[in-house]
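Each lists sequence, tokenised fold; shown next:
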Amino acid sequence: MKRILIVIAMLGLASFGLNLSAQQTPAQSQAGTAQQQQVDAQGQQSAKSFEGKITKAGDKLVLQDTSTQTAYQLDDQDKAKQFEGQSVKITATMDPTTNILHVVDITPSESK
């Protein structure tokens, strides 16, 4: 009789553990899917060309787009420093939440 009760108790605990484990798996799977979607969204972002003049805004160098009168912050101040005051073409990706350009390349602009 005691053996039967022990077996039933063990089966009950085992099924409780399996049920708890099954409930946690979808949440972990959804978290993994959300993380994968963020990576995919970032991976699909391609570099674009921006043209303007490198100028100072406070203590930072920015790209001043003369056609739209928009100033873009630059993440690579060292690359931009050598072009201060010049018209340039920047290849970069833009962070949509901060409008900061993540510089890939800076070259002097062909149009003056």
Summary: The radius of gyration is 28 Å. The mean pLDDT is 77. Residues 76 and 103 are 6 Å apart (CA to CA). The helical segments are 2-44, 77-81.
